[in-house]
Amino acid sequence: MLTDGTISLRALEPIDVDTLYRWENDPAVWGVGLTLAPYSRKQLWDYVNNYDGDIYAARQLRLMIDLINAEGMTQTIGTLDLYDFDPANSRCGVGILIDSDARRHGYGLRALNLAADYCRGRLSLHQLYCIVGEENAASRRLFEKAGFRISGRLKSWLMSGNSYSDAYICQKFL
């Protein structure tokens, strides 16, 4: 488990199915991810139970973000994905979701910093990257605070309804 004393990043567990069900089926966050349709509990149960946490084999890693209270108890407040893991070029993508009730408390920044430390120290990565829609100012601010810098603009990258919008590709060198 990765922790800074306030939050921890941990492996996906069967107890996370209901939480994932709520997040993955929230249309408000579909626009910032790749979700096109709702997931069933069975689909998420199968995903969790067949999940391969070996980033070298699966080329991705999902970590749950837990908030640690004063008594040491935890509450799951988000998820962080490392995706498109490319050990040959020492990089991977990163995506994050923080529950709406836990936003604007610095937990996303803490999680990104823990993930960067893990990627640098344990995976020996050279860089992380993310793609953020131009209209997603909150996400852009979060990644900028975490040391990511815009390195390019992707024209007509994201489709919403019948229109397209641009996105930024951001990088953080470790």
Automatic annotation (TrEMBL):
This is N-acetyltransferase. It holds the Pfam family Acetyltransf_3. Residues 7-174 form the N-acetyltransferase domain. Keywords: Transferase. InterPro entries: Acyl_CoA_acyltransferase (IPR016181), GNAT_dom (IPR000182). It comes from Duncaniella muris. PANTHER family: GNAT-FAMILY ACETYLTRANSFERASE, SPERMIDINE N(1)-ACETYLTRANSFERASE. PROSITE patterns: GNAT. One of its GO terms (molecular function) is acyltransferase activity, transferring groups other than amino-acyl groups.
